[in-house]
Amino acid sequence: MPTHRAQTVAYFAAAAVLVVAATQVPGRLAARHDPAPAEIVPSQVQNPWLWQATVGQHPVGPASVLFFTAHTRYLESTGVVVGRDGGYRLLPISVGEGHGLLSPDGRWYLRPGTGSLVDLRSGDERRTHRPGLHPLTWSPDGRSVVVSRSNDDQVITYGPDDQQLNDPARPDDLLIVNPWSGAERVLPVGVFDSHSAAAWSPDGSQLATSGPVDPAAQLAERERLVVADPVTGAVRWQVELGDRRRLAGRAAWSTDGRRIALLTHDGCTTGCADIAETLRRPWRIEFLDAATGRPMGAPVPVPGSATELVSWRGGDPVVERQSPEADDEKRRTALAAISADGREQVLLTAPTGVSDLEVPGDLLGRAAFGGPDPRPSPFAAPPWLAAALAVTVLLAVLLLMRWRRRRARLR
């Protein structure tokens, strides 16, 4: 065999070995080798590398934190999963797709509206239930999800004189869905134009839900709160929240089962001049007696702009709150425990531009905050990128060797 032909075969063999190594080695280098994953929430998360692998390319296992940011190679809102071993992976979402929910054990991500579940341990995504459902909260045991289903008509029809012939707005349904089997049942908790939030009691025996009851209330941002039996849907009590109060979120029910938290603001309602005025509104947490719906206790002032009550730390609520910058690229999101006098202890911080922070329910329930701050590994790259870089390096080496041989012949 001619020498140059043998060299060509050797080059191609080297290229194959390099490509295979490039697709396998980065994942091994990115893997953490701790004896056991840390069952604790880090105190800070970082922006991922632009070439960070997705959960489907290099699964990272159950999440300790999930956040959403546009500071990725997709240049739009993207989920970023921080595994319990400290690894970072991207969770791409479609344009216009909302933010979904982590299961209480951190293993599953429920996509809103698509009918899909993402297994963060394997990276697989499966269509398991009907699309068009808006998830509100997982049940405490992690076996089902409370969802809202829109019944609005998709098309408005008009007559020959341009008169509207149909009303597309119809009350939404509240359902409890098994996201793996697709089994669902309707909870007849009353008429709601839409549902904005839901919260389970700690023992799972009661369910609180809120939302506007008709299109006029939807426009005016007036909501009603209903506490019902999650099996029969029988309403135990209800109160009108108006346009300045709302159910505080998925963890609105206190851990002792005695109180239900509301987020209340002062200032503008539907007539805010801009986003800056909206974010400057002062917020506080108010409480209702879970047995009667009557106000109880003193309100707790919240620093910053509160978005949701996500957990409890002892008797103190833990809220997700944002700084008041009008530019969302400069705004900061954090989780903070708020004491009765309004003092806060920041538990988890994120870079500017992060729009949401999700922590699994099992870690929230143990108030497992204060973990180390893992950094994303630059080696956790998609296999195609590693292979492309390997081929590029190999071609550069081959070109250099060819140039050196040509130069030697000329001499």
Average pLDDT across residues?
87
- Residues in helix, %: 10-25%
Radius of gyration: 26 Å
What coarse outline follows from CA principal-axis ratios? globular
Order of helices and strands: HEEEEEEEEEEEEEHEEEEHEEEEEEEHH
Describe the sheet with the most strands: 4 strands, antiparallel
Poorly predicted tracts of residues: 19-23, 32-36
Strand order of the largest sheet: 3-2-1-24
* Content-based structural category: alpha+beta
Question: How many helix segments?
Answer: 5
State the separation between the terminal residues, measured CA to CA: 26 Å
Strand content: 25-35%
User: How many DSSP-defined strands?
Assistant: 24
Question: Helices, strands, pairings?
Answer:
Blueprint: H1 3-30, E1 63-69, E2 78-83, E3 88-91, E4 101-102, E5 108-110, E6 116-119, E7 125-127, E8 133-138, E9 145-149, E10 173-177, E11 184-186, E12 197-200, E13 207-211, H2 215-220, E14 223-228, E15 235-242, E16 245-247, E17 259-265, H3 275-279, E18 283-289, E19 300-302, E20 305-313, E21 316-322, E22 333-338, E23 344-349, E24 356-358, H4 361-365, H5 383-410
Antiparallel strand pairs: 1-2, 1-24, 2-3, 4-5, 5-6, 6-7, 8-9, 9-10, 10-11, 12-13, 13-14, 14-15, 16-17, 17-18, 18-19, 20-21, 21-22, 22-23
Helix pairs in contact: 1-5
